[in-house]
Amino acid sequence: MAVSDELADLRRKHSLDVADLKRTRILDVASELFYELGYRGTSVDAIAERLQVAKPFLYTHFKSKADILAGVCGRTTAFVAGVAEDQANRTGPASPRLAAMLRELTLRVIEGRMYLAVYFREEMHLPADAYRKLSSNRRRFDRALSSLLQQGVESGEFDIAHVPVVTQAITGMTTWLFNWYRPDGPLSAEQIADDMARLALAMVEKRKRSL
After folding, report:
1. Angle, nearest 10°, between helix axes 3-37 and 113-122?
2. What is the value of pTM for the model shown?
3. Which alpha helices (H) appear in 1-64, and where do they start and end?
4. Confidence check: pLDDT of 64 > 80
5. Contact in structure between 99 and 195 (CB atoms under 8 Å)
6. Contacting residues for 62 by C-beta, under 8 A, at least 6 apart
7. Start and end residues for every CATH 1.10.10.60 domain found in the chain
8. pLDDT at 211
9. Burial of 194 (0-12, 13-18, 19+ CB in 10 A)
10. Positions of CATH 1.10.357.10 in the chain
């Protein structure tokens, strides 16, 4: 590759990085307002005012308020689906992979708890195409988690009567963290993540028979 091409690639990458940072900042502020005032109670003007930018700045990154909501709701769902798929597609014993998945999911849910709260409260306002995409991410997560649990059953590590039931139990256990986690609580995010991993394993692993 010529030096000029390399420089052009670097400029494009830098431009994308800056654009991503701007989009993230918009989504962070929008999620705060959607959380505080609700989707209907938040205007594009209010988002621009809190960001201290002109409204056209927002429209260079998002088409509409609904598009901003789709961005807020999609931040966490796409990531957690990817986390689950990564662990399901790895090789080796299922137990440590499930534990790693639960730790990472817990930390991500805690970090993005405001985004998740907005998602569950305001998903009825999503455009149809955004709703379909988010639903697809949820199905991806369920399939990956179910696959990992089934792998554990087949390897003899897990004792699960109904994989779909356990899939939903683990999903609910981690997802609803956004509703009760408090940063000033007695446990750190890392401690809660470790607890979630232990609870999931206790739910699925075969019990050792005493002699």
Report:
1. 60
2. 0.81
3. 3-37, 44-51, 55-59
4. yes
5. no
6. 23, 26, 68, 71
7. 1-62
8. 42
9. middle
10. 65-206
Per-residue tokens: 92: 């080796």
Residue 163, SS3 per DSSP = helix
pLDDT score recorded for residue 78: 82
CATH topology of domain 65-206: Tetracycline Repressor; domain 2 (1.10.357)
Q: Which residues pair with 205 in a beta bridge?
A: 158
Q: What is the pLDDT of residue 41?
A: 95
d(CA 193, CA 209): 28
Residue identified by tokens 């399901």 is 88
Residue 158 has pLDDT above 70, yes or no: yes
pLDDT surpasses 60 at 57: yes
User: Which residues, other chains included, contact 154 with Cβ-Cβ below 8 Å and sequence gap of 6+?
Assistant: none
Structure confidence at residue 206 (pLDDT): 82
List the single range of 16-25, 60-69, 72-81, 163-172 with lowest mean pLDDT. Answer: 16-25
Residue with tokens 């992979």: 97
The tokens describing 72, both together, are 């807020």
In angstroms, what CA-CA distances link 129 with 66, 115, 119, 125, 138? 11, 19, 15, 12, 14
What CATH code would you report for 1-62? 1.10.10.60
